[in-house]
Design a protein that fits this description.
Shape: globular
Structural class: alpha/beta
Number of helices: 14
Distance between the termini: 17 Å
Largest sheet: 8 strands, mixed
Helix content: 25-40%
Strand order of the largest sheet: 5-4-13-14-15-12-17-16
Oligomer: single chain
């Protein structure tokens, strides 16, 4: 528990914001958590959790609850969606767990969010404000004032902007304009296990790589559901990430893929769509008594499957820096930023690279396949040690 408890304002009630509230409340700080939606609720479908996420669950005391809700794949598989050939398969249940000390898991985003939120409810010092959108804030040197669109005013010792890709907090302290539109669109859906074609009912995280497209599918909720994410290149743009997808356009973009992929796509009648965006990495996202966290600080494309993991890492690191700051919050926020920016920048840029690799065509596709086939599973693990090895990522957690 902190000897210098603070009142901290957090804008954004997604995974990053709720994880930050929990991490800081565990130290005895009073938290005001603001969510613009009418209720605190996780949206989306499945997400992947690397071994670094399970280390964080241990730190937050959530491991048993997460394990009860997650699915644990036997393998991570990459398939060629034109030839139908398996390019590579990494034994997740054995090799990854043995090498990094923690598993590779798959979970419904709403389940992860609900576990974090429920844990927050055990802390009376966390006050949750739903239907409460930030209109503005002001750093007055010795405290911060947040104003909502409803005209309410809240005062705290610091403000944490966990308000996502279109962060209003970032707009004031970084002011780098709108996000970068990648030209890729993702369609997502979930499918009951009984509707999944038998050939695809594999306990694996499976990625079908194709020219300017890919499909990912994997089990959720103990294998009762399958998560599907279909991504393709498109100039279409629509702000937000929860619109309905156009099935006709989807099938056109996946023309020429093997039947195993088309059968999965044809099973879905209603897709949710979002346009994939990120931003250029930045070195400084703290200013005075205000800082950023998660997608507000370092939004990344989903190809590395690390957006939620990095946000939770931020939350744990921020809490540690505040704990060690002896009451100097501006110094703590800078120390947190300095500990995180290189790791998160690497994740942002690696995610872009993976997108190009997954969507390769022609000679580039052949080179990708030859390269991945030439690597052993052990080499795969060592290539990802920067991301999953505890000795590596603990340095960025403070």
């Amino acid at each position: 528990m902190s000897n210098n408890p603070h009142t901290l304002l957090i804008a954004g009630g997604g995974i990053g914001g709720v994880a930050a509230a929990l991490s800081l409340a565990k130290q005895g700080h009073r938290i005001h958590l603001f969510e613009q939606a009418s209720e605190f609720k996780g949206i989306g479908a499945g997400i992947q959790l690397g071994p670094n996420a399970f280390y964080l669950f241990d730190q937050l005391g959530l491991t048993d609850r997460i394990n009860a809700l997650a699915a644990f794949p036997d393998d991570l598989v990459v398939m060629d969606s034109i030839s139908g050939d398996e390019i590579t398969a990494i034994p997740a249940a054995t090799l990854i767990r043995k090498r990094f000390g923690y598993p590779y898991g798959l979970i419904h985003r709403a389940d992860l969010h609900a576990v974090l939120l429920d844990e927050c409810r055990h802390f009376p010092k966390i006050t949750m404000h739903s239907g409460c959108k930030m209109a503005d804030f002001e750093d007055l040197g010795d405290h911060v004032v947040l104003r909502t669109e409803a005209g309410e005013t809240y005062t705290g010792d610091a403000l944490i902007g966990a308000d996502g890709l279109w962060s209003g907090v970032r707009a004031k302290i970084v002011n780098d304009g709108p996000p970068r539109v990648s030209g890729h669109i993702a369609y997502r859906a979930v499918l009951p296990i009984e509707d999944v074609p038998e050939a695809n009912r594999r306990n694996a995280m499976t990625l079908w790589a194709g020219p300017k497209n890919h499909l990912v599918h994997y089990p959720l909720r103990g294998g009762k559901l399958f998560n599907l994410v279909a991504v393709f290149h498109s100039d279409r743009y629509e702000e937000g990430w929860d619109s309905y997808g156009d099935t006709e356009e989807l099938m056109l973009r996946f023309e020429g893929v093997v039947p195993e992929v088309k059968q999965m796509l044809n099973k879905i009648e209603s897709w949710r769509m979002w346009v994939l965006c990120d931003r250029e990495p930045i070195k400084e996202w703290s200013k005075g008594r205000v800082t950023l966290l998660g997608d507000a600080a370092h939004p990344m494309l989903q190809y590395l499957a690390q957006g939620a993991c990095m946000a939770m890492e931020d939350a744990v690191c921020l809490a540690r820096k505040v704990q060690d700051s002896k009451g100097d919050l501006p110094a703590a926020l800078v120390s947190y930023q300095d500990a995180r920016y290189l790791r998160t920048a690497r994740a942002q840029l690696t995610a872009r690279l993976y997108g190009n690799v997954y969507h390769a065509a022609g000679a580039t596709r052949d080179l990708r396949n030859a390269f991945l086939r030439g690597r052993t599973a052990e080499q795969f693990c060592e290539g990802n040690a920067w991301l999953y090895d505890q000795a590596e990522f603990k340095q960025s957690l403070g």
